[in-house]
Amino acid sequence: MATSLLPPQTDDTQLAEAAVEFPDNFLLIELCGEHDRNLAQLETKLGTQILRRGNYLVAIGSAEAAKETIDVLRALYARLEAGREVTSADIDRELRMHSAPEMFDPVGDPADQLEMFKGGAVEIKTRKKMVEPRTEAQKAYVQNLFAHELGFGIGPAGTGKTYLAVAVGVSMFIEGHVDKIILSRPAVEAGEKLGYLPGDMKDKVDPYMQPLYDALNDFLPAKQLAKLLEEKRIEIAPLAFMRGRTLANAFVVLDEAQNATTMQMKMFLTRLGEGSRMVITGDRSQVDLPRGVQSGLRDAERLLGNIDDITFNYFTAKDVVRHPLVAKIIEAYEADEA
Fold it and tell me: pTM to 2 decimals?
């Protein structure tokens, strides 16, 4: 692939052209997308115009935007050359990664020895899909989960805290690094009283655990997941059920940790056994505990922040990977609280 950056055409327009050649015409068609929708997404995000001239794509805009457009196109083309698809989410990921500064240096870190970090790429292999972090904060979070035995992911909804943690857990389980996966949540109602729930204990707690089931269904075939749940090699249980257990050779995730009390958090953290990994995720802005009850997540941050072997990764509205409006909603609430 040949790249060139041409100077502005006139002093009035202040536009630059950057061009790159893609030798494989079939891959170029995939890169552009149906009705050039991939190019349209890049044009909207970067404020450039992208023209196709034979096997060349030309980006027109400010010198910086034109260069960034070409860089993203080259990265997406490399995905296609590796036999992988390019979706709207992949484009969003490349845009975020190219616009953000590097936040994590794995040199000297245990994670540097893992195959997934060679070449700078971070990919999580599961039975159904390959999962890739879409922001630098997510990338650092995933690397820390592989490299350390205890980690925290703290930030607003939609930043992938739980999703990525479960993906890492499934990957480590598939590779044989752990013998089981244990996912837990405090069974706390989100601001409304649901009253009596019919059915047995599983029927009563499953509504609280549904987001964890959703994540697992994304990574494991339905029959395999059902078998692993039946064999108790994957467990999904309320936080209260963790008391008295020692969780050895397991990947353990505590979701919605902001709704754990201080005593519950201490109880959960001290369940960590030999050969296990533990991840705690939460959003400090969504505490559903009764008024006057201290969140165990806040206490854990205060008490454990200086322990070297425990990592804390923080996310902001910029890391939201749901609908773009979600990020704007979070920013509006944060601005009002400030």
Answer: 0.75
Pick the closest to residue 337 from 274, 287, 266 (CA basis). 287
Amino acid identity, position 130? M
> Would you mind telling me the total number of residues written for the chain in this entry?
338
pLDDT at position 190, please? 47
DSSP 206-233: HHHHHHHHHHHHHHS-HHHHHHHHHTTS
Backbone φ and ψ for 305, nearest 5 degrees, come out as -60, -25
CA distances from 218 to 134, 164, 252 (A): 17, 11, 18
Q: Quickly list DSSP for 119-176.
A: GG---EE-SS-EE---SHHHHHHHHHHHH-SEEEEE--TTSSHHHHHHHHHHHHHHTT
Q: In what order do the strands lie in the sheet with 277-282?
A: 234-238, 180-185, 250-254, 277-282, 150-154, 310-314
Highest mean pLDDT among 23-37, 140-154, 209-223: 140-154
Mark 40-78 as b/e (b = at least 16 C-beta within 10 Å).
eebbebbebebeeeeebbbbbbebebbbbbbbbbbbbbe
